[in-house]
Specification:
This protein is of the alpha+beta class and 431 residues long. 21% of the residues lie in helices and 30% in strands. It has two domains: 117 residues, Sandwich (Immunoglobulin-like); 263 residues, Spore Coat Polysaccharide Biosynthesis Protein SpsA, Chain A (Alpha-Beta Complex), CATH 3.90.550. Helix 2 packs across helix 6. It is elongated.
Length: 431
């Protein structure tokens, strides 16, 4: 016996720790070996129909694939962003087809369900597979078995295979647009504010919206500002408009918002220097800088090694208005005029204001809505005197009298540019 002859408690403890460590290392080595890709067929052509939907259901095993991404930050893997049932999905396998040699490799997947499931049976998940050593596969299929015929399985294109130079500085990710969304005026104002602040691309995961909103989206798509990712999640799962599980038979919270946010980070990892995670009724307003580029240059200089910057959310109730900027030509457009809402709610005792983020997407592994779950580098809370989130929506503190609200006209610094730009959009769309 390894520890024979050791009489002291100290020596016994050292022996136990040593043996435990050896067993743990052996287990991890076996685990890694079990996930190594194995050749199972040769001389085959890649088959299977290429998936072209944003959400693809795998047959009969409670797994939904959004998209796979190449990720070599730690090892050479394919990371599939997906949605899985947290109890019923036990194992999955990646099937890689390597051309021109025609070898089919199977790699056992590590299924990593994100920790912020909030009680729902389905949650965002990373399905991670080691790639073959001497192959850069362009597509992958997912199966619940390492055996069988995958000719009928959908094949998914692996994105981010080639590193690219950044095409834009800032990309805003908005997830998800649902509920027959029709807040047209505020949406246009948000888009124009984003552009004033330095945004070149806005990615929207769209479930549904009004016919008028479709017209607005079409304008911004043709302009090159907006990219729409179809998000028909309610075709696959019973969705909740709440973020937490209510024991009401729903499968996933807030229309799968967390899955969409993670997909948006990976989708823009190679093409955008920064990714901004917020909603369409939220605008990060700099107080010390004219735009986001100047603000982020300063924040990065002051916070070396930081990859996640968190901004505090503040509610500007849409029920409390100023008489300023009552622009008559806007009165026929559905939605809120944010320029008239410059009174914000005070902080609540013992309640922490939620935050939204600007991140370096290449440093993020998993994100939630108000913080990242896993990342390389540090996170930093941005002080309120540097920037805050202007969030114009229904009041949270509904019983507060007007005199208890804080008048904050930071938004008005942009009023002339914003009014001119919104009027230009409205005239071009002929609203």
């Amino acid at each position: 016996m390894l520890c024979a002859g050791k009489k002291s408690y100290f020596a016994a403890a050292v022996c136990i720790i040593t043996v435990t460590s050896m067993l743990a290392v052996s287990y991890l080595q076996l685990q890694r070996l079990s996930h190594q890709p194995k050749v199972i067929q040769e001389g085959r052509r890649c088959r299977g129909k290429i998936a072209n939907s944003t959400i693809t259901a795998l047959k009969g095993n409670k797994t939904f694939i959004i998209s796979p991404y190449f990720d070599d930050r730690e090892s050479k893997v394919t990371r599939l962003i997906g949605i899985v049932h947290h109890e019923d999905v036990k194992q999955l396998y990646c099937w890689f087809c390597c051309q021109p040699n025609g070898k089919i490799y199977v790699s056992k997947a590590k299924i990593d369900i994100h920790s912020d499931r909030f009680g729902f049976p389905y949650g965002a998940a990373d399905i991670v597979c080691l790639e073959p050593e001497n192959c850069d596969p362009t597509h992958v299929s997912i199966n619940q078995s390492p055996h069988g015929n995958t000719d009928q399985l959908p094949r998914f294109e692996i994105k981010n295979r080639k590193a690219e130079t950044f095409s834009v500085e800032f990309t805003v990710c908005i997830s998800t647009m649902f509920g027959n969304y029709n807040n047209v005026l505020q949406f246009i104002q948000s888009m124009e504010m984003y552009k004033i602040l330095g945004v070149e691309k806005v990615v929207i995961y769209k479930n549904n919206c009004s016919h008028l909103m479709e017209k607005i989206l079409k304008f911004y798509i043709e302009e090159g500002t907006i990219e729409i990712i179809p998000w028909p999640i309610n075709s696959h799962l019973k969705v909740s408009s709440k973020w937490h599980f209510m024991q009401d038979g729903t499968h996933i919270g807030y229309y799968g918002q967390i899955t969409a946010l993670n997909d948006c980070i990976y989708r823009n990892m190679e093409r955008s220097k920064f990714v901004v995670l917020n909603d369409a009724d939220e605008i990060i307003l700099p107080l010390k800088h004219p735009n986001w580029k100047a603000m982020m240059n300063s924040l990065q200089e002051q916070n070396p090694g930081t990859s996640v910057f968190l901004f505090e959310n503040h509610i500007f109730p849409e029920t409390v208005s100023s008489h300023m900027f009552n622009i008559s030509s806007w009165n026929t457009v559905p939605g809120v005029n944010i320029l008239q809402h410059v009174y914000r709610e005070p902080d609540r005792k013992d309640v922490i204001n939620p935050r939204k983020m600007i991140v370096d997407p290449r440093k993020v592994i998993q994100t939630s809505v108000h913080s990242v779950l896993r990342a390389y580098g540090k996170s930093a809370n941005v002080p309120m005197d540097v920037a805050l989130i202007y969030h114009c929506r229904k009041a949270l503190q509904r019983d507060l009298p007007r005199e208890s609200l804080i008048r904050d006209t930071t938004l008005w610094r942009y009023n002339s540019s914003l009014i001119k730009n919104v009027n230009k959009v409205l005239s071009q769309i002929m609203l």
